[in-house]
Amino acid sequence: MPQDTFIITLPPRQLPALRGWQVTPAHLAYRLGPGPHLFRADSTAPRGGLMVVDDRDFDGLGPTGPLCQEILRECQARGFSGAVLDFENRLPPLEQVTAQLDEQFARRGWALYVAEGYAPQAHHARVMIPSALSGGSLQRRLEEALERFGESRAVLALELRREDFFLPSPSGSGQPLTQQELEELRQRLSPSVFFSGDLCARYFTYMSRDNGAHFVLFDDGDTLRRKTEVARKLGIRTFMAPWSEVAPYTAQLGIQRRPEPRQGRR
Questions:
Q1: Tens digit of pLDDT for each residue in 221-258?
Q2: Residue-level pLDDT at 259
Q3: Residue 214 CB partners (closer than 8 Å, separation 6+)
Q4: What is the CATH number of domain 5-160+220-253?
Q5: Cα 129 from Cα 5, distance rounded (Å)
Q6: Where in the chain is the domain with CATH 3.20.20.80?
Q7: Is the pLDDT of residue 149 over 80?
Q8: DSSP assignment letter at 257
Q9: For the domain bounded by 162-218, which CATH number is listed?
Q10: What is the mean pLDDT of the segment spanning 114-124?
Q11: Torsion of CA 151, 73, 64, 98, to 10 degrees
């Protein structure tokens, strides 16, 4: 039976929380900055697993070749088996970085994970497909991803999404809610909560005197479980998730404990 691979993102200082779990840590410890250079965002120096690189401080200036070499050297020095490029911006230099790392990582047998928008620049990389949708069907979304990338490259990126949408919502984007804000809203309104089989998410509606109709879409441990089940049925067995969001739901998601070593007989 095929085995799941869970890639768990977390800061290096929280790494002890993963002790005993059958997961691959992805260290939230690196960022691209001016120069451009690779900077360690956490004073802890991680080893093993994957490095996560974000672009929040990247200004798009400077040559990308030396930057890619810095990333390669850091992976080599820290024993990383790959990297997650957590790029939120779309800049030509970031496309160049992605393309160069894709070739260099593939040559070394390392894994590279990229957002779907960067897939055209990374033909060898594994592509992260977000689990949260505001419309359509998750199953169809994943089927389309499989048609484009195949089972070996498609990765379901799990996230606990909580959003409050004004209706109508032509942009498909809502106002993010914290868990506390969602709980307070539900306590105040006592709404009927429904489950969307297409989105694999829960939702409710309400009316506001100030701005009319609202649609609240949110996830919990059960909706995350259902999303992994949809992915597994289609052949996707690699999942990425932040530990801060999925730690309470390890059993529901099927994250396994490592077998205890057997004690030798005396």
A1: 999 999 999 999 999 999 999 999 999 999 999 999 98
A2: 81
A3: 164, 165, 166, 167, 205, 206, 207, 208
A4: 3.20.20.80
A5: 15
A6: 5-160+220-253
A7: yes
A8: B
A9: 3.10.50.10
A10: 96
A11: 0
d(CA 231, CA 122) in angstroms, rounded, equals 22
Distances from the Cα of 26 to the Cα of 21, 48, 86, 100, 184, angstroms:
14, 9, 11, 21, 33
Which residues share a beta bridge with 32? 38
Before 170, cis peptide (omega within 30)?
A: no
Q: Which of 9, 16, 6, 84 is nearest to 245 (CA)?
A: 9
How many whole angstroms separate alpha carbon 263 and alpha carbon 3? 26
* DSSP assignments along 19-85, one per residue: TTB--EEEEEEEEEETTTEEEESSSS---SSEEEEE-TT--S-S-SHHHHHHHHHHHHHHT-SEEEE
Q: Start-end ranges of CATH 3.10.50.10 in the chain?
A: 162-218
Task: Give the DSSP H/E element, type plus range, for residue 217.
Answer: strand 212-218
Give strand pairing partners of 240. Answer: 7, 157
pLDDT of residue 159: 94
Which two structure tokens, joined as six digits, stand for 190?
Answer: 């006592």
Question: In the structure encoding, which two tokens stand for residue 163, read together?
Answer: 């959003």
Q: 């999925």: which residue's tokens?
A: 246
Percentage, residues of the chain above pLDDT 90: 85
Within a 10 A sphere around the Cβ of 215, how many other Cβ atoms? Answer: 17
- The gap from C-alpha 12 to its chain's centroid, in whole angstroms, comes to 17
Quick one: pLDDT at residue 91?
A: 92
Which pair of structure tokens corresponds to residue 192? 């009927």
* pLDDT per position as a tens digit, 34-92: 999 999 977 777 899 999 999 998 998 999 999 999 999 999 999 999 999 999 999 99
